[in-house]
Amino acid sequence: MPTASPTAPQLNLPTADEPLTGKAPFECWGRYPTYDAKVLPLHWQSDFPAITAGLHNGALPVGMGRSYGDVCLLKDGNLLLTTGMDRLIAFDPETALLTAEAGITLAQILDFAVPRGFFLPVSPGTKYVTLGGAIANDIHGKNHHTAGTFGRHITQFELLRSDGSRRLCSPTENPDFYAATIGGLGLTGLISWATLRLKPIVSRMIDYEGIQFHGIDEFLDLTTQSKDIEYTVSWIDCASNGRNFARGIFMQGDHSTRRAELKPSAKPKLIFPFDAPGFALNHLSVSLFNTAFFHKQIHKRVVSLQDYEPFFYPLDKILHWNRMYGKRGFLQFQYVIPWEHAKEGTIAILHEIAKSGLASFLVVLKAFGDVPSPGMMSFPKPGITLALDFPIKPDKSFPLFARLADMTLEFGGRLYPAKDAAMTAPQFQSFYPQWQQFARFRDPMLTSSFWERVTGDRPSL
Amino acid sequence: MSTTSPTQQSGTPAPRKILVLGATSGIAQATCRIWASQGASLFLVARNAEKLAAVAADLRTRGASFVDTAVADLDDTDNHPELLAHAVNSLTGMDIAYLAHGILGDQAEAEQDFNAAAQILYTNFMAPVSLLTWLTNFCVQRHAGTLAVLSSVAGDRGRKSNYLYGSSKAGLSAFLAGLRNRVDREGVTVLTIKPGPTRTAMTAAMPKAEKFADVDSVAESIVSAIDKRRDVLYVPFQWQPIMFVIRNIPERIFKKLNL
């Protein structure tokens, strides 16, 4: 054996002082904004302390980049890509507790869990997010009114800090770091692994019911009637004023209790192949889509048995569907307005959107329940939440967005950082008055373009 | 048999006994995940104890019926007979040996420093030859077994950008071809696996790494090639015609290309 050095590094970890790897190597899902950054992939839990030692310009842990705006970006900084840390650590079918590294995706968890008769306790609208990202944004799903946020089902996790410390965090151990990290936008440290409580299922199928409604009153009636149904969400038509104002389809479902084969999911085959031209989405095409979608359901009420994939993840069938909005990207807007002003606020905002003529079709309306969110900075609270997206038209989208954000504030609501690329620092600080208390838990090495934008803070490093 | 049991999807009656050398490599991990979900028995060897433990826990959780490990630097060839005997004892036999360890090395450094060049050749060529000497004789005695070895498309023709890595893999591919020829009548299968660039920790720092092949699809092809007792696997399959063309470009032209 000639020259074997026992300490020779086995992996080619990129070194921190190399130049940036070119234009926007990592995109957020809305594709706006775009920033240069250096992507440093993490493959092992030990990579984080090894890499952060030599970092300049700050760093941010990122996963699948499904956040819509700049919570997953760091201009001219280092993005620590966690998707290589995707190992399972333990699973106990008795307690349904699954422990895994934080870079595993919910899709990978489902591939493991569903054939064994288990399901995610909370599912967002896409399964292509990481466990760590789901915690850091304290995501929610169609069962918020019964299950609360994702963070409620995280019994413990480990938090690595750039000073080399490791903390086990749970509701009873380091409860302050537990609360700051859930919904903490990846700023409190790197979540190396987490334990998630799954729930048992006996079938892949969902007992589905779709109900047409007209107007917010009908939506609220349906919400009251369905409070014992596990999953509820509504699609609404945001482009119509007058007779068709706030028409929509109320979609509800429960896991089927009839035993059926729990086979794994097929891989998606469709990929949106190119950036659509800017004019493809306009008021006409969106109105046509909305009318077609509303009337696709011919009857007032439709009952069916649906696989969980189209029920929870209808857009995951088409990889890169965000290319539909073209190169300029799109803005997401999601508010929650507390019950006190939920109805008037929602009606006022829907009128404002319809009046603007700015096209939007993936519009989702839901009532949040009163299960408390565990995170200091969690977005959900009891009330109505509305999520929609606009293609970016420079002179129209941003003024509309600013008006909608101001209206949200007037009605006592707040916006969702994971979906934001445009709220101002004063708006953020009014939405989340606890932000300074949260800032004390931030890892001094970690920051994001979002955080710098809404706090005016480029930390000294 | 119930089709819902996640550990019995292969339909194989007894779990297969698989020895994995270089078990923390990206391609090895992805391959082992498939075997684990089929309920295989695994013996894993790697150099870093912490990483090896993480991989072993992952494979146990995914349904491997048995997982044992040994921490070893495979450059230490003197240790190979003892290590391999221990592994085979632990598994109580061996159906498949999967050699997946290797280093990319630093081409620029290796052009200047023979020690760096020798290190690449030693880890990627000499060490596998030592392992395969023992493993082949074990299989030949039993007239059974599959030796699946990760070589590379880079071994099909030397290029200025990575000819040390490439020549180590060329040597390995030639060794495997000869070995296959020797043991063909002994009931032993030798599979030469030639992956194209694949997204793993080893290649993460290379330019355009995001365009490389998905490691899970590469692993699926490897498992299937082993099941079909194939001789040589180019993966993804496009690399077979590509390398055919590259091997046949006249040297007079090839030497001027920027590859």
Summarize the structure in words.
The complex is a heterodimer of chains A (461) and B (259). Chain A has helices spanning 47-52, 106-113, 131-136, 144-147, 175-181, 215-225, 283-296, 308-312, 339-356, 394-410, 425-431, 435-439, 449-455, and strands at residues 38-41, 59-62, 78-81, 88-92, 97-101, 118-119, 154-160, 166-169, 190-197, 199-200, 205-214, 231-236, 247-255, 270-271, 301-307, 318-319, 330-337, 364-368, 383-391, 414-415. Chain A starts with 37 loop residues before the first strand and ends in a 6-residue tail after the last helix. In chain A, strand 4 and strand 5 (97-101) form a beta hairpin. Chain A is of the alpha+beta class. The radius of gyration of chain A is 22 Å and the shape is globular. Helix content of chain A is 25%, strand content 23%. In chain A, the strands form 5 sheets. Chain A has an 8-stranded antiparallel beta sheet with strand order 15-11-13-12-18-19-17-20. Chain A has a 5-stranded antiparallel beta sheet with strand order 4-5-9-7-8. In chain A, helix 9 (339-356) packs antiparallel against helix 10 (394-410). Mean pLDDT of chain A is 89; it is low at 1-23. Chain A has 2 domains: 88-201, 2-Layer Sandwich (Uridine Diphospho-n-acetylenolpyruvylglucosamine Reductase, domain 3), CATH 3.30.465; 205-424, Alpha-Beta Plaits, CATH 3.30.70.2520. Chain B is of the alpha/beta class and 259 residues long. In chain B, helix 6 (163-183) links the parallel strand 5 and strand 6 (189-195). Chain B contains 9 helices and 7 strands. Chain B has a 7-stranded parallel beta sheet with strand order 3-2-1-4-5-6-7, sandwiched between helices. Chain B has one domain: Rossmann fold (3-Layer(aba) Sandwich), CATH 3.40.50. In chain B, helix 1 packs parallel to helix 2 and helix 1 packs across helix 7. The N and C termini of chain B lie far apart (53 Å).
